[in-house]
Structure formats: structure tokens, C-alpha cells
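call fold(seq) -> C-alpha cells
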Amino acid sequence: MADETPVNSQITDAVTQTNVKVVGEAPAQAMGMVYQSMAHSISLSMQNAMQAQGGLQQIGNAVTSSACRLILDATKGGMGS
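ret:
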């Protein structure tokens, strides 16, 4: 119970309990925010890796296409002469 004040003791107890509840939940909320921030950072790095892999795949396709074109041009030149 709260000390004797001009305010009803039930009111002061209710306010005190609310304050205790808020202070008690603060660490859990802070860790929840940390976990959400970490998950967001990891998802951004995964998106970045996917974009990089897609770009490298496009480069690989272009190189393969150019090599095939060079091979076909070399065989056409050899057969025509």
C-alpha cells in the first residue's frame, strides 16, 4: 500500500502498478526491437546478394553468347575459304 496521502490509496496503487508494468515490459520491448532490426538487416543483405547473383548471371549469359558467336564465326570463315 502507498503512504497516506490526500489521494485515495487505491488510485495511487493503480498508478504505481501501471508504472511497474511499463518498466517491467521495457526490456522485452527493447529486445523485440533489436530482433526486428536484425531481421530487417539480414533480409536487406539477402536481397543484395540476390541482386548481385542475378547481375553475375546476366554477365555469364552475355559471355557465353559472345563465345558461341565467335565459335560460329570461326567455323564459317574456315569452311568458306
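The mean pLDDT is 88.
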